[in-house]
Design brief:
26 helices, 3 strands, three-stranded antiparallel β-sheet, mainly alpha
């Protein structure tokens, strides 16, 4: 469909709405153009097909999934199945509902109708209107409704954002961060479930909200702490946010404190997830190492009984091992290398691969310190087992290199020479690491 044709269709839509409004009776019926021709319900996400007709996205997508390739209204064959968001109609619907809130709220029919039974766009508009009212006690109740609805329905999350809720929520977050715990929890909980655009995330990073979120990580209320973490994980999808978060005083220490939970609670999972995300930037790794991440993570590694937790910890440690400070911290902490060695063949294939990679990086950089710590941790036997099993040539090559370094530290005993020579023929010598 051409751009001009689409523009004409948008103008026709707007004109049709105005005509329908003039014909409305005193009951304020919803304009027919708001109704999806397929589902016969008010459209939540109006999209236009190549014939110029508009449907609710979910309904037309289901129509296509059933094998149809024609327009449901005209039965005309569609040139393509591209769905163009009908922003004009969406805006008209939003304005239409907004202009009628006062009238509808005075209607006895609306007062007895649960908000959840209304179209999402109207739900968002009504709740946002309530949210702008004075009185924090009122706002807490509305925010709880907001969060509950948003968790159930992706469409209402979009409607909440389109209705302009994010700026209001962030302002409430700042206004209630001074100790009004109930209101603060309601604000941050609602904001945490909304899908934020990159631009909104950047705006949050440049505002007071980011410092508030970082401080709330160590909140006594575990739910508030969890919502703060979820917000930070979302923000950390942008590299510039990773830098800002890592440089907020006390944030890394708070995350490491939460990670130490051996039960691998949701708080611990989100904290480890955020640390893993932050370490993806080299500049952040120095900060994370300085805050004692190697000690905390290797201590936890020696105690954990959760495969996913062990894998995530080794992922972070493998990343930190590429820095001299990270390797030094592993060699200096008495149980760091031994705890890492214990992951070979005891948890998962992924853990074994990362363990061999860490040992190779550490031992290559510090043959004496790293090699001896690996030997004391029982790495000699474990690495030999890796060479005997079906691993990739890359993993075996690294294992062989680690074995050679350890052999150099204990002397060339006949046993080790025999074991090394017997495996060297199986390991390609031309692997590029």
């Amino acid at each position: 469909m051409s751009a001009m044709g689409y523009e004409h269709r948008q103008q026709d839509t707007e004109s049709a709405v105005h005509e329908e409004e003039e014909e409305e009776d005193e009951e304020v019926a919803v304009p027919q153009s708001f109704i999806c021709p397929i589902s016969l319900d008010v459209m939540e996400d109006p999209v236009t097909v190549s014939t110029g007709h508009t449907y609710n996205r979910e309904s037309i997508q289901k129509w296509f999934n059933e094998g149809h390739s024609n327009c449901p209204l005209t039965m005309q064959h569609l040139q393509d199945k591209i769905l163009i968001p009908n922003h004009m109609l969406h805006a008209i619907m939003h304005n239409w509902f907004s202009n009628r809130i006062k009238t509808w709220r005075s209607s006895s029919d609306l007062l007895v109708m649960p908000v959840k039974e209304l179209p999402p766009i109207l739900q968002a508009t009504i709740l946002l209107s309530e949210l702008r009212k004075e009185g924090l006690s009122v706002k807490v109740g509305v925010l709880e409704k907001f969060r509950s609805l948003a968790q159930e329905n992706a469409n209402i999350r979009t409607s909440i954002i389109d209705a302009g809720a994010v700026p209001l929520l962030t302002s409430l977050l700042v206004a209630t961060a001074d100790g009004r715990e109930e209101q603060f929890f309601a604000s941050i909980g609602t904001l945490a479930v909304l899908p934020l655009s990159q631009e909104v995330k950047r705006q949050i990073g440049r505002s007071k909200v980011l410092q508030i979120l970082c401080s709330a990580v160590s909140c006594v209320n575990p739910n508030t702490s969890l919502y703060s973490l979820e917000m930070l994980v979302s923000l950390a999808e942008l590299d510039e946010m990773k830098i800002l978060i890592s440089h907020k005083s006390g944030t890394i220490l708070s995350l490491l404190h939460l990670v130490e939970d051996t039960s691998f609670s949701k708080l611990a999972k989100e904290s480890l997830h955020l640390i893993q995300s932050l370490t993806s930037l080299r500049s952040n790794r120095h900060i994370i190492i300085r805050e004692g991440a190697v000690r905390v993570l290797t201590d936890l590694l020696s105690q954990t009984k959760h495969t996913k937790q062990a894998e995530d910890i080794l992922t972070v440690l493998e990343t930190l091992s590429h820095l001299a400070e990270g390797r030094a911290a592993m060699v200096q902490h008495p149980i760091a290398i031994p705890s890492i060695v214990k992951m070979i063949h005891r948890v998962s294939e992924r853990c074994t691969k990362m363990t061999i990679s860490i040992l190779w990086t550490v031992c290559k950089a510090d043959p004496e310190g790293g090699g001896m710590m690996a030997i004391r941790g029982g790495a000699m036997v474990q690495v030999l087992l890796v060479l005997q099993c079906e691993w990739s040539s890359r993993v075996k090559w690294k294992a062989m290199e680690v074995l050679k370094i350890m052999q150099g530290q204990v002397g060339h005993c006949s046993y080790n020479r025999i074991m090394v020579s017997s495996f060297q023929e199986k390991v390609p010598s031309t692997i590029v690491v």
